[in-house]
Specification:
The structure is a homodimer.
Chain A: E1 5-10, H1 14-25, H2 27-34, E2 38-44, E3 59-61, H3 64-70, E4 75-78, H4 86-96, E5 100-103, H5 106-123, E6 127-128, H6 139-146, E7 152-158, H7 161-173, H8 177-187, H9 195-198, H10 201-215, E8 225-226, H11 234-243, E9 245-256, E10 259-270, E11 282-289, E12 293-300, H12 304-319, E13 346-356, H13 361-371, E14 376-380, E15 389-396, E16 399-400, H14 401-412, E17 422-426
Parallel strand pairs in A: 1-2, 1-4, 2-3, 4-5, 5-6, 8-10, 10-17
Antiparallel strand pairs in A: 7-9, 7-11, 9-10, 11-12, 13-15, 13-16, 13-17, 14-15
Helix pairs in contact in A: 1-12, 3-4, 4-5, 5-10, 7-8, 13-14
Domain ACT (chains A, B): 350-425
EC number (chains A, B): 1.1.1.3
Enzyme class (chains A, B): oxidoreductase
């Protein structure tokens, strides 16, 4: 048996602690599967408090960057998080010192993925990030290797468990966003500062990595169109149900002749589609390859155990000698992404208006839609309350988003429209 | 760039032809992803008829074994099928000559997997078989690498698309097995000789490979308990619906303290469970790991394109230099499987009897169940037809299968029981 593989871990939060526990618990199995002994030689974290694992053979570093530079680790795990600062320094230092890097940090790779991939390749080390997308689900490996025979034109998924939990719970209980968010925070499914999750940023980080990997393009986070779930009300959820849809926050990346379309926004998905049935904190990723057709990966998208499973899967690869280009092809060959603007989307739309209940309202709205050549598919008004505010729901036939945006602007300007309209894209993938 | 990777293909049926087409269509992409040129140098098939791909640079062999021995291929693809005979000779010859082997042949590996894995390892070549289980779904890689951090105690799935199509179609149309089988044959979803599929043998081949890989044991096909779907009637499908279940042919492998339980049989699965919603020719595999929890892989389980996708995924691995032990650990370390007999199962059961409608029938049956300490959960008798045959359906609480088998024997012997009872296991995973 060759030399033990020596590991340094930066960050001992949920994921870091889960990783240490997994390695300690499954050590014999990991050695059997990789043919190598594995040894945690160094750790670093914000505070040197008592941890509930044995630290006696592990060197403590107050500073993670010093650890990345000076420990004798073969592999540095960056489990700190954040797109800049210490996490980035740890990764850069480890690469510069010729150490393999495993990271769970989607923000870092979304912002600096192409550049870090180049550096890792030049240094001849792995930059592995299975844990950065969809937690324990082995979707990076699935696309980079398992489906590597295919060219892809579509990858999409439920990439944020917090949002999926909130939307599932709103549907089950009929409650509104704020109330369910509060419960999610109590349960530990949402952060005290929830905006990375509920505003769609976390899902967008992950989507940009999937797009790079699937399409062979440089990570292009800045081009992702992002809309979170704060505007979804219990009314929207109820109308979706009535119309045969479920509302899901999807990340969708599509390669067309004109470029790459990356978007994260709430979608109305036909209720019988498999992705509509993925509930609670689960994640799912769907890929469409030119020979395999549609493949689905589903499982736990977050949490200490599942994320550690992905971190250690990368470790197993390294221990077995599987060192592949970060995004599946040599970094120098990644194409500059040409972004396709969201306005070019063709699809159907759901529109919920709050209007004053008086004669002529529907005629005014219909006239605007006609001007933009938008055909109405269904129109729902359940209540009548003359002179007062009532909800009016319209779904459209397929139209170009630009026309929809113009129509929305005009509709918002009508006197009879009392609140900002809520528009949700209807998506059938 | 290094030397081109030279390939010889044995068998040009649906999968072989699909593989040639995929390689020719995606050649540039494959070279980009692997960093190596790939070249098909030789093919062999039963007849040298005109193929709809360019054969000008490819050497034809009448005999696949001669090709495995004498061509200068680095990789031999065995896409012939069958557990013995020429397929086995091709694989053994290629390995003996130091060539990597890629096969889609579950029967061969189910019967000779451990032995062939040892030979491949001794020769230092790959014996890769992603295409042998669940077609295009990268589940072998998923378990061997993507979830390699975990110890597993359960892997199960819908492993035969023909059976899943038949059961889905029976439910949708209310028709009986024979009629739907005929349609499946017309559609090309079932073979003219359907018994490998409908009697559960194909699914059992695949299950035995998944079990070996997940549990680190030698392939033990002979221990799989096998029951096909011929006995499922439209009545059973209708009762399942009424009781809130779907009938699926599942392969289930479980590792317990006592050994490994491998079984393929029709199951009544709660209708809201994800596996119950996998319909038509789709396949799905579910793994339960000790850190990742439950992971699901779903997609196309058969067909030229999807299976070729898996064959070429193995080729990409080899081109990239990823050569791993066939069943995830060195062949010499695979444990002898200790099989756990099906009679030890604890679970609930569905029982459909055809009884004479007369007083005392239920009392007689209930007495037998009482003797075997089996509690009834529900009892359905919808028709009354004094003196004539009526269906009587019983579901039980959890009980040991041995008790159920004894009870069934006694019940079958009752005068009032007019046909062989149909028993289906209720499974909640």
């Amino acid at each position: 048996m060759s030399e033990p593989l020596k590991i340094a871990i930066a960050g001992l939060g949920t994921v870091g602690t889960g990783t240490v526990k997994l390695i300690q618990e499954n050590l014999g199995l990991l050695t059997l599967r990789t043919g190598r002994a594995i040894s945690i030689v160094a750790v670093s974290a914000r505070s040197k408090k008592n941890r509930d694992f044995d630290m006696s053979d592990i060197t403590w570093y107050d500073d993670a960057v010093t650890m990345a530079a000076e420990s004798d680790a073969d592999v540095v795990m960056e489990l700190i998080g954040g797109s800049e600062g210490i996490a980035k320094e740890v990764v850069e230092t480890a690469i510069a010192k010729g150490r393999h890097v495993i990271t769970a940090n989607k923000a870092l790779l979304a912002h600096h993925g192409a550049e870090l991939a180049r550096k890792a390749e030049e240094a001849g080390v792995a930059l592995a990030y299975e844990a950065a997308v969809a937690g324990g689900i082995p979707v990076i490996k699935g696309i980079r290797e398992g489906l590597a025979a295919n060219s892809f034109d579509l990858v999409y998924g439920i990439l944020n468990g917090t949002c999926n939990f909130i939307l599932s719970n709103m549907r089950e209980t009929g409650r509104d966003f704020e109330e369910v968010l509060f419960e999610a925070q109590e349960l530990g499914y949402a952060e005290a500062e929830p905006s990375f999750d509920v505003d769609g940023i976390d899902a967008s980080h992950k989507l940009s990595l999937l797009a790079s990997l699937a399409f062979g393009s440089e990570v292009d986070f800045d081009s992702v169109y992002i809309e979170g779930i704060r505007a979804i009300s219990s009314l929207d959820i109820a109308y979706a149900d009535e119309l045969g849809y479920r509302i899901k926050l999807l990340g969708i990346a599509r390669k067309t002749q004109d470029g790459i379309d990356q978007r994260v926004h709430p979608c109305m998905v036909p209720a019988e589609q498999p992705i509509a049935l993925v509930e609670g904190v689960l994640n799912a990723v769907v890929c469409k390859g030119n020979h395999v057709g549609t493949s689905v990966f589903e499982g736990a998208g977050a949490g200490g155990g599942p994320t550690a499973s992905a971190v250690v899967a990368d470790l197993v690869d390294i221990a077995r000698g599987t060192i592949l280009p970060t995004f599946g092809i040599p970094a120098a060959k990644l194409e500059k992404a040409v972004s396709q603007p969201v306005e070019t989307r063709e699809g159907s739309y759901y529109l919920r208006l709050t209007v004053e209940d008086r004669p002529g309202v529907i005629a005014d709205i219909a006239a605007i839609l006609k001007r933009e050549k938008i055909s109405v598919k269904s129109l729902l008004q359940h209540e009548s309350n003359p002179g007062k505010a009532v909800p009016l729901v319209i779904t459209t036939q397929e139209t170009v988003e630009l026309a929809m945006i113009r129509a929305l602007e005009s509709i918002s300007g009508l006197d009879c429209v009392l609140e900002k309209p809520n528009m949700i894209r209807i998506v059938s993938l």
